[in-house]
Design goal:
CATH topology of the largest domain: Rossmann fold
Strand order of the largest sheet: 2-1-3-5-6-4
Radius of gyration: 19 Å
Strand content: 15-25%
Helix content: 25-40%
Largest sheet: 6 strands, mixed
Shape: globular
Structural class: alpha/beta
Distance between the termini: 21 Å
Number of domains: 2
Number of strands: 12
């Protein structure tokens, strides 16, 4: 117990959180770098995000990863917010500053861009994007793509006001060009990159679950030469990805984004360069 008591503790919070691959990813990184840290998962329901940060202070946790549905709650409750958090109103990473204050950061945007480069070799500068969805993940992706120089980001969502909010996030990232706009399903045809940032097709249960067979759009709308990314990584191959690959379209899941956003969080917490290859291997292997 004495050895464990000296360990620094970090965790992922959300609802659900116990299914998360984050403990496997971070504990592999801690072991690889030789630092005495432990990472676990806590189920925290909606409405308890601020209380979770209070507990973080009391228990002296070194860092938190934050997933649905708490990203907005923790952003509001933190003492210090990064610029991107101010724009998005959402944080997926909390850093203990050592003086009792907590810093809210968002590593999703940087994680997506790094994954896009690593998986597809895509440089965002000048590209046209069709972005399906307008939630927190979509806003982070829109911000990241605009910050990296995307020329046009058409946000496609059933609710125009939510689509506009995601487009506004993209425009806030660029001081000159304003690439974000409300789009329609027809924008898919002219896009270089199509991103599913909805939860359509997600599911960790049985492969016969009807939710896992749902698709955010008809794969026939895309053509070879386009690149598609599904932010979902549970399952690793959604019905949408399978349909796209059958048509010869380059398509990637969200596992690399999970790894790269985790690597960015690791570096914020520890000040140590993240062992990305080790973290990727742990992510592929599954949960802790």
């Amino acid at each position: 117990m004495d050895g464990l008591s000296r360990s620094r503790l970090a965790a992922v919070i959300g609802d659900p959180a116990r299914h998360s691959r984050s403990p496997a990813i971070h504990n592999a990184a801690f072991a690889s770098t030789g630092i005495d840290w432990v990472f676990t998962a806590f189920e925290v329901p909606a409405g308890d995000g601020a209380a979770a940060l209070d507990a973080m202070r009391v228990l002296q946790l070194a860092g938190l990863s934050v997933t649905m549905p708490l990203k907005s709650e923790v952003a509001e409750a933190a003492d210090v917010r990064d610029d991107v958090v101010e724009v998005l109103g959402a944080a997926n990473c909390i850093v203990a500053l050592g003086d009792g204050r907590l810093r809210a950061a968002n590593t999703d945007a940087a994680g997506f861009i790094a994954a896009l480069r690593a998986d597809a070799g895509v440089v965002p500068e000048g590209i046209r994007v069709a972005l399906l969805g307008a939630g927190g993940a979509a806003r982070a992706v829109a911000w990241g793509l605009a910050d990296a120089g995307a020329a046009d980001i058409a946000v496609i969502n059933r609710t125009p006001a939510r689509a506009q909010a995601a487009a506004d996030a993209a425009n806030a990232a660029s001081s000159e060009a304003k690439p974000g706009r409300v789009g329609s399903i027809d924008d898919i045809a002219g896009a270089d990159l199509v991103v599913n940032a909805t939860s359509v097709g997600m599911g960790a249960g049985s492969s016969t679950d009807p939710q896992r067979s749902a698709m955010p759009c008809d794969p026939a709308r895309l053509l070879p030469g386009q690149v598609a990314v599904d932010l979902i990584y549970e399952p690793l191959e959604t019905a949408w990805l399978a349909g796209l690959r059958e048509r010869g379209i380059e398509a990637h899941n969200g596992l690399s984004m999970l790894v790269f956003q985790a690597a960015a969080a690791f570096e914020l917490w520890t000040g140590i360069e993240a062992p990305v290859d080790v973290m990727r291997q742990a992510a592929v292997a599954g949960r802790a």
